[in-house]
Design a protein that fits this description.
Chain lengths: 209, 179, 397
């Protein structure tokens, strides 16, 4: 009948109106900034550098390989390599970045730098309330501002961080095992070299027995 | 020849005449149509001062609400939104002025001739809307019906003129095939 | 008891008494002018105040219907939002396009607001509270309403903008089409009352049988007339679902497009005030004006009833706006000429039959059955040709 749909529609809106005062599912508004929705784990906003331990510069995972700088589509990363080396998490001596700048006004949060980093050194942060009144350098973050601890990484991306830690521990264990095997092989070689030195004297001692 | 006209009458008369002059003299055609609307409003005020409530409100309803809109629609549909501007005066203005003065003299003679010798302030007959309605239904019912038929014819004519071509040719071919 | 009665009576007539008291300070020949000026001041103060309230209630109401909060930052619960809107519209730059017709562009909102304010003159807001008790009050109201169409055309044409012109043309066509059902549906109230004066129409509805009032909306022809009048009123004031001429998703803002700042605010004001005056008119014609809904509630002042009914009507309009999608131009026109016009004409015949069938239950049954049958039949006939099935896409699988 003509007008039936209209009456059904009117009933629906009336239900919405009345329900918006009592039920949460009819009033879904979150009154930002007083209330906030917790971000989900896969949230990504702008990159940050991960460091292990408590000293940011000593524990920095980044080895200034510059892969992220080359892969970044809008070219917002600027890296200057160091001239000396420092040990990384397995103990190998690596160079480190003396300058690592990201211009987050240019960054488009594509996560390519994270995907290509072989050292799990750069990850995506979840902070977005970064407005500043400084027009000229306020959104250019340097190495100190970008470095955040591994604990912070665990807090914002727990599953990912656990995976990364497991992988790094595995690598470290493998490297240690390799080092031990290398050490054992070296020791065995040294022993073999020592043993090889001994039989030269023995045949001289027992010629005809 | 009395100057006992009230302020209200003088104001409405001034408004009407100003609107009419503007409608005749303005260059932009839509401006002329809009000042004609002001003239209609002035006329309605004059009717209301004569206590002819129905005539006054019908003047506003019909003239301002329909005829003025009709005029502007006609201008827009035939000329489009870009209105070319015309000169205010035509080349034969002297002849026009003479003819207008002659007609005005004729009207003035007719009006003064029809006034009674002594203007007595008699009570105007109370014409209420009810009496107009009663008259329309009793002594003037034939003109009412004829006007209604006229309006219907105009409506049907407008619809036919505005109907898309395909429908007309389709009906024509159908009657042609039926023969 | 009489003291209590006189208190309620005084409350009912408080504005009239105030008006007479203030006019008493002036010499006798000046008193009518002063009384009129005071009444005008009252109207100019009250209705724009209701306008301010309506803008915030509409936004919050629409918000709640759409599962969101409305504005709630300015003032407690957002009540002071109209103040913020007013300050914004007053301080915005007034841009007039270079090729626009400056004089007409300026006059269009002025003409609209003047015409709309004049419409309030014949609205009986309470007992003895009408600004101009005209014999042909209804005719005056509709005549003034017709002038608003002219201002919309002026606005659309003077902007020299295709979209404005298109919006203005559509708006004028819509308003002219819906004027016919509007007038015809109001004629039934005039027929049964026997007078064009709004005061007499309200007084004719002020009786009670038992506790139920004699409002026209409680009769078959009155109910049909009320529904048709409300639909035509929504279309006259370009209110959703008939707001195609000013639809934001269709024509930018239609004929408002080139208006900014205070002129836009004036258009907005004019449109809402037009909605109030026509809602007030619907209340006067069919809902008993300032009359109480139950005879036991007659002590409440008459102007309070009028404003309560006006608020209810406004709430209903907001409800409709939140529910219905916009009608397309051709659907609009079809609806006006093919459905509303026959129904209003039939309503006229039914009202005449009501009057001449005499008192008693037969006339109720006959009139209701005729109207319902016509509604159902007309609805079926008009909906028959529409293929309203599930949407099929040509290139989809």
């Amino acid at each position: 009948m003509l007008g039936e749909g209209m009456l059904k529609g009117l009933a629906e809106t009336a239900k919405n109106f009345a329900g918006s005062f009592v039920s949460k599912e009819r009033m879904t508004t979150v009154q930002y900034p007083e209330e906030r929705i917790a971000p989900i784990e896969n949230t990504r906003d702008f990159p940050f550098l991960v460091y292990d331990g408590s000293d940011a510069m000593a524990g920095l995972r980044c080895v200034a390989c510059q892969i992220c700088e080359k892969e970044c589509p809008p070219k917002c990363i600027y890296i200057v390599k160091s001239t000396d080396k420092k040990p990384d998490f397995v103990g190998k001596m690596q160079i480190y970045p003396t300058r690592f700048d990201i211009d987050i006004s240019v960054c488009m949060s594509c996560q390519i730098c994270v995907e290509v980093c072989p050292f799990e050194a750069i990850k995506m942060d979840t902070e977005f309330e970064l407005s500043t009144t400084d027009r000229f350098g306020g959104l250019l973050y340097d190495r100190e501002q970008l470095s955040k601890s591994n604990e912070h990484y665990h807090k914002i991306h727990p599953t990912e961080a656990a995976e990364v830690d497991a992988r790094l521990a595995e690598e470290k264990a493998k490297a240690e095992a390799k080092a031990k095997a290398a050490a054992e092989a070296a020791a065995a070689k040294a022993a073999a070299a020592a043993a090889a030195a001994l039989p030269k004297e023995a045949p001289a001692k027992e010629p005809g027995a | 020849m009395t100057f006992g006209c009230s302020i209200a009458f003088l104001l409405s008369a001034a408004l009407t005449v100003a609107g009419a002059l503007a409608a005749a003299l303005l260059k932009n055609l839509v401006h002329c149509a809009l000042s004609l609307t002001v003239t209609f409003a002035g006329l309605a005020l004059l009717y209301l001062q004569l206590d002819a409530q129905f005539a006054g409100f019908a003047q506003i309803l019909v003239y301002i609400g329909a005829v003025a809109i009709l005029v502007v629609f006609a201008i827009l549909l035939t000329r489009g939104a870009g209105i070319p501007e015309y000169r205010g005066f035509s080349s034969s203005w002297l002849l026009g002025l003479i003819i207008a003065a002659a007609i005005f003299a004729l009207f003035g003679w007719a009006v003064t001739k029809s006034l009674p010798a002594q203007i007595t302030a008699s009570a105007a007959p109370a014409i209420t809307v009810q009496s107009i309605g009663a008259a329309l239904m009793s002594s003037y019912v034939l003109p009412l019906e004829i006007v209604a038929v006229l309006l219907t014819v105009a409506l049907i004519g407008a619809v036919i003129v505005a109907m898309p071509e395909s429908r007309i040719t389709k009906s024509e071919t159908r009657t042609g095939g039926g023969q | 008891m009489s003291q209590q009665a006189s208190f309620w009576n005084n409350l009912d007539q408080v504005f009239v008494l105030l008006q007479h008291r203030i006019a008493g300070y002036f010499p006798v020949w000046l008193q009518p002018v002063v009384e009129t000026i005071l009444a005008v001041v009252g109207i100019v103060a009250a209705f724009p105040g209701i306008f301010a309230l309506t803008t915030v209630l509409e936004r919050k109401g629409l918000g709640r219907m759409q599962n969101r909060l409305g504005p709630n930052r300015v003032g407690p619960l957002g009540i002071l939002q109209p103040v913020a809107d007013g300050i914004k519209s007053l301080t915005k730059e007034d841009i007039v396009p270079l090729s626009a017709d400056a004089a007409v562009h300026f006059l269009a909102p002025v003409v609209l607001v003047i015409a709309v304010f004049m419409g309030f003159a014949v609205l009986p807001i309470g007992r003895n509270m009408v600004l101009a008790n005209l014999d042909a009050g209804l005719l005056f109201f509709f005549a003034i309403g017709a002038s608003t169409e002219l201002s919309i055309f002026m606005a659309g044409w003077s902007s020299r903008n295709k979209y404005s012109l298109l919006g203005a043309m559509r708006a004028v066509a819509q308003m002219i089409s819906y004027e016919v059902p509007l007038l015809l549906s109001s004629v039934v109230a005039v027929m049964i009352t026997g007078s064009l004066s709004t005061v007499k129409i309200v007084e004719a509805q002020s009786g009670f049988t038992g506790i139920f009032p004699h409002w026209y909306v409680f009769t078959p022809w009155g109910f049909a007339g009320f529904v048709l009048f409300v639909i035509a009123a929504l279309a006259e004031t370009n209110r959703s679902p008939f707001d195609l001429p000013e639809g934001e998703s269709e024509l930018v803002a239609g004929y408002f497009t080139e208006y900014s700042g205070f002129k836009f605010a004036l258009f907005f004001l004019g449109e809402y005030l037009g909605m109030f005056s026509i809602a007030g008119f619907a209340i006067t014609l069919f809902l008993g004006g300032w009359g109480a809904p139950l005879s036991v509630l007659e002590f409440v002042p008459s102007w309070a009833w009028f404003f309560l009914k006006l608020l209810a009507a406004i709430a209903f309009f907001i409800w409709l706006r939140g529910t219905l999608p916009r009608l397309r131009q051709d659907q609009l026109m079809n609806f006006a000429w093919k459905f509303m016009l026959p129904m209003t004409l039939l309503n006229l015949v039914v009202a005449g039959a009501w009057r001449f069938l005499g008192d008693g239950w037969p006339r109720w049954v006959i009139c209701s059955v005729v109207l319902l049958a016509a509604y159902v039949l007309l609805g079926r006939v008009l909906m028959r040709n529409q293929n309203l099935g599930a949407r099929s896409y040509r290139y989809a699988d």
